[in-house]
Amino acid sequence: MPNSNKVPNRLINEKSPYLLQHAHNPVNWFPWCDEAFAKAKTEDKPIFLSIGYS
After folding, report:
1. Looking at the domain assignment, is residue 1 inside a domain?
2. What letter would DSSP give residue 10?
3. How far is CA 52 from the centre of its chain?
4. Cβ(53)–Cβ(22) under 8 Å?
5. Which residues have a Cβ under 8 Å from the Cβ of 43 and sit 6 or more positions away?
6. How far apart are alpha carbons 25 and 11 in whole angstroms?
7. How many structural domains does the chain have?
8. Boundaries of domain holding 24
9. What are 14-30's pLDDT values in tens digits?
10. Within-domain flag for 18
11. Quick count: other Cβ atoms within 10 Å of Cβ 36?
12. What is the pLDDT of residues 2-13, one digit of tens each?
């Protein structure tokens, strides 16, 4: 079933087919990048790492 959410998240610019599957999820996902780690550090929040499930 296609996701009806039309607004893509940051994953829309990734090349990985797995990440692209989640580019229209209503989640503020970050790919593995310096921006993600800087944001977590600034906000004093942990990193939630998804290793995939498909």
Report:
1. no
2. G
3. 11
4. no
5. none
6. 9
7. 1
8. 10-42
9. 999 989 999 999 988 99
10. yes
11. 15
12. 555 589 999 999
